[in-house]
Amino acid sequence: MGHSNVSWLPNAYPNNGVVWEARFSRQDGTPCPHRVQCTRAKKEPRILGLQTRDQYEALQATREIQITEAFRQQYVARAGVESTREQAIRRCGLRQCRYIGLAKTHL
Q: pTM (2 decimals)?
């Protein structure tokens, strides 16, 4: 809403693709009625993560491919497998082993 950032910092976790972080002042965002459009944090200020141009353009190109009908037809098989797997995890608790000890849990 017209405020400038306070600092530019290199990202501490570059593996997620974000190279720089632009941080804004806590005083600028706290009383703002449009805060919910900027951040989900309750008290912390807005932080923008910025990628390199190559990473950004590759991400946008992939997103454009994903909205095509050809991609949807190709993804149908995977979506069926993923939904079956997710249902088994949620209903049957497959992420946790009900037995203690290696003898009963090995395949």
A: 0.50
